[in-house]
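Sanity check

After download, print the first record. It should look like this:
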Amino acid sequence: MEAINLSNLHEKNSRFRIIAGADDRLIDFVYAVDSLDAFDLSAGEKEVSGYRTKAITTEYVKALYVEFEDKTALIIAAQDNDIMQNYDVFNQSIAVVVNNQIRDEGKKNGIRLLAECDHETFCSICVAHTWAIALVNSIELDDAFAIQAQNSFKHLLSNHKTIVGGNPFPASKHLEYFSWIYYVELRAIREIIEMTNEVKLHDVATNSAHFPLLINCLDEEQLFDLQFTEIICSDIHPEYGQQSIDNILSCFPEKGRRLDLIKLDLTQDNKLLEQADVIIANDILEHFHEEESFDVLCKLWARTKDLLLIHVPFEEIPTKAYGHLTSFNKEKLNQWASKLHGCENITDKYAYVARESYDPCFIDNFLFLKKSR
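Expected C-alpha cells:
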C-alpha cells in the first residue's frame, strides 16, 4: 500500500476538508469527511504500512485517530446524516457534547492527545463536525453554521420565556447554562439600576453576540420593563460575532435593531472600551493568566459608570480545551472585588434574583459590583 501523507489528504482526495489550526495544536491535522471510507485504512486498530489507527465512535461522531511517524490526524464524519434537521440537537450545545465524548473516548483508549485536548483541537473538532454534517447534506459550511446559529438562538429565546414563565429547568447543556446567566443578569440590572429606562449597556467579549441579540428580541415584559438606550458589543474577533448577528437576524428581520460590534483587545489600553452604565463580562476572566485577568477586571471597572456584572465558571484546574488559564472560586472573586477602588460588592444583597435558578449556589459564580456614591 502506498504511504499516505497526513498533511495533504485534502489534496489527494476531494472528500476531505482540512481544518486550519495553530502550529502548536496537539493534533497535527484535523479533517472532515462525508464518510470514513474516504480514508483507505480499516476502522479497527492495526498496523498498516507504519500507520496506527483507532476508531472513535460516539453518539454524534464516527472518527478515526491516525498516527504515522511523528504526525497525528483526526478524521471526523457525522454519525447521523439527518442531524441538521433536529433543532434540539443541531445547535451550539452540540460542540461541547461532541468534544467531551471524543475526549472521554481518548481517555478510554489511552490516546493522550485526545484525552488532554487543548483549545485549538477543541475548536478544530467543532468546525470539523459541522463541516462533516454540511458535506453529507451537500451544503456549504457557512450555510451549516447559519442553521446552527439560528437554532441556537431560537433555543435561547424559548429558554428565557420558559424561565420568565416560572418553569425552571436544569442547566444540563451549554445553551441552558447561558440562558440562566442572561436571565439572572437582566433581573439584576432591573433590581439594581435606578433609571431603568435609560440604560447604556456594553457586552464585552460578546463572542456570538447572543446576549445583546436576546435583549433586542425580547418584549418589555420579558425584559422586566428595562429600556436600553444603546447596546454595544465588542470582541477581539468581531467578524465571528458579526456573522452570528447576520445569521440570526435573517430569521428575525423585524427585530433588526442596529448593534454596534467593535474590535476590542482587553489586554491593551485603548478608548474603545467605552464607558457604559452597565458593563457585562461573561466567562471572560478565566481566559487570561491570573495577573492579566485581574488587570482586565480593573480595566472593566474603570470604564463602568454604575454597574459591572461578572460571571465565571468555578474550576479547581482550568480546562485547557475551553482555553481557560485561571481558575476561580467564590472567595477569590470576593477578594478581587475588594481590591477595586470605589466598589460596593452587592452580590449577596441581590442574590434573590437567582433564587429560581436550577442550583441554589448558582449566584456564587457572579459578581454584582456597583460604583460607590
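If your output differs, re-run the checksum step. Summary of this record's structure: The longest strand covers residues 61-68.
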